[in-house]
Amino acid sequence: MVTSIYHNGYKNKLSKVSLRNKFKNKKMNRLKNKLAAITGGNSGIGFGIAREFKNEGAKGVIVGRNQETLDSSAAQLGNDFIAINADVTNLADVLNRTRMSRRRCPPGRGRSSSM
């Protein structure tokens, strides 16, 4: 992995520039007090999005069809996210699971009064 490069700077003086990201381990809070519902959040890109949302301060729900991967993903995300097993292509299933998630997401975990 490249961590620094050399380049010709001012008056062709050879300079070393560090490529290290100074904010890599810093937790951002752009999504603090926001609630997210992420479909497909149990694996792949959806899980990556859920993880980044959590890193940015969001709380929420991940939705997927595979209970085993949902449980694993929820454990990795911690208490900030709950997992709901639902098929988003079935409207009745989504509505039923939405009601369930409202009961499982208490006010202290990002639930608003309008939920």
Comma- or semicolon-separated keywords:
115 residues, alpha/beta, single chain, three-stranded parallel beta sheet, disordered C terminus, 23% strand, two-stranded antiparallel sheet
Quickly describe the structure:
The protein has helices at 44-55, 67-77, 91-104, and strands at residues 4-8, 14-18, 35-39, 59-64, 81-85.
Question: Can you describe this structure?
Answer:
With 115 residues, this protein is α/β, with parallel strands linked by helices. It has 3 helices and 5 strands; from the N terminus they run βββαβαβα. It has helices at residues 44-55, 67-77, 91-104; strands at residues 4-8, 14-18, 35-39, 59-64, 81-85. The strands form 2 sheets. The protein has a 3-stranded parallel beta sheet, with helices on both faces. Helix 2 links the parallel strand 4 and strand 5.
Poorly predicted runs of 5 or more residues: 109-115
The share of residues in helices is 25-40%
| Total beta strands | 5
Spatial strand sequence of the major β-sheet = 3-4-5
The secondary-structure class comes to alpha/beta
What kind of sheet is the major sheet?
3 strands, parallel
Query: Distance between the terminal alpha carbons, to the nearest Å?
Result: 46 Å
Strand content: 15-25%
Query: Radius of gyration, Cα only, in angstroms?
Result: 20 Å
Q: What would the principal axes of the Cα set say about the shape?
A: elongated
Please report the number of helical segments: 3
Report the order of strands and helices: EEEHEHEH
Oligomer: single chain
Q: Calculate the mean pLDDT score and round it.
A: 78
